[in-house]
Amino acid sequence: MLCCCSYSCSLREQILPFLRDYDRLQSFAIILIYIQIGCTLVGSLGALYNGVLLINLGIALFALVAIECRNQKILRTYAVLQVT
Q: Where do the domains of the chain lie?
């Protein structure tokens, strides 16, 4: 496969091994979920608090439990909750 520029090839060569390493990908997902929880908590301090942030916090905590338990059924449920 020919690449049009060397930057896209090198970027692809860096990303593909990262996506194939499940442990590093899981660690990155946990960091993103902690960021989501932090943003939810900071957002809930505002004057325009509504239940959406509380629901988002619940879903993020649900994902954290699902990842730590390594339960595929719970992870699929989390994926459905994120899409809806």
A: 22-83
